[in-house]
TrEMBL record:
This is Mitochondrial thiamine pyrophosphate carrier 1. It holds the Pfam family Mito_carr. Solcar repeats lie at residues 5-95, 102-191, 205-287. The keyword Transmembrane helix applies. GO terms for molecular function: FAD transmembrane transporter activity. PROSITE patterns: SOLCAR. The chain crosses the membrane at residues 71-92, 104-126, 164-185. The gene is KNAG0E01720. It comes from the Eukaryota. The lineage of its organism: Eukaryota, Fungi, Dikarya, Ascomycota, Saccharomycotina. Its main location: membrane. It is found in: Membrane. Belongs to the mitochondrial carrier (TC 2.A.29) family. GO terms for cellular component: membrane; mitochondrion.
Amino acid sequence: MVELSPTGKEVVAGLSAGAVTSLAVHPLDLVKLRVQLRATKGARAGEYWAVLRGILGGEGALKFRQLYRGLPINLLGNSVAWALYFGIYGSLRDVVAPMVKSPSWAYLMAGGISGVATSVLTNPIWVVKTRIMAVDRVPGAPASDRSMGPAFLRLLREEGVPGLYRGMLPAVLGVGHGAVYFLFYDTLRERILRDRESKKLRNSETVLMTAVSKMVAVTAVYPLQLFKANQQSRAAVEGDYSLRSLVRKVVGNRGVRGLYTGLLANLVKAVPSTCITFCVYENLKYSL
């Protein structure tokens, strides 16, 4: 059996963790995205239920298929993103750690740089994902919005290469999410394992650390995620969806609370999904 390098183990563990997570929580991701794309309109009571009813509007097998609308592109994106993130983060953390006095600064710097690199490399995948998941796969819907290949080709044909990088600014600004997350996660991890001979976390410890770190990180930068989703939507092609314009639209229609439209769905999706990701990652990393 081939012995993987430490970075190779990080990449394989991250790739596997991303794939398992996507399969487990995709319907929640779909609801979250649909709610985020309503943020520029007036608030409505029962918004989450309205989105869910819209997704489940088909009959029979179509209902189930609609819940997994965009699964292939989401599976690809999350697997590649986590593999890149863990691979880059693990390497950078080991390089930066000897250069700084505090381990927390090493975690923060490695998390920030890894986040920027991953965002730049995977942004085209997320634009295509948003275009596919924003519409239902029903009779009469444009064929170009139904799957990865046609959606990607339409994007290139109509918007060129710049279209692949819609939402790049809030995505890069939002890497603070990853930096904050790993600052909390690795600091807690270090304290838990400090006086322990084994360097492998229990699953219960991983879940607790992940839940706390994720809730803090997601809430801290959530408006940027909201802006990114809207800038990557098809509506942004014809309208003014600059950051300044989006802030005016969202706050004008919903008040400051509108900047957190979809936060509940995001937390319900993000916390368990990240717990799954890190449980798979921590266990697989030590078994490779």
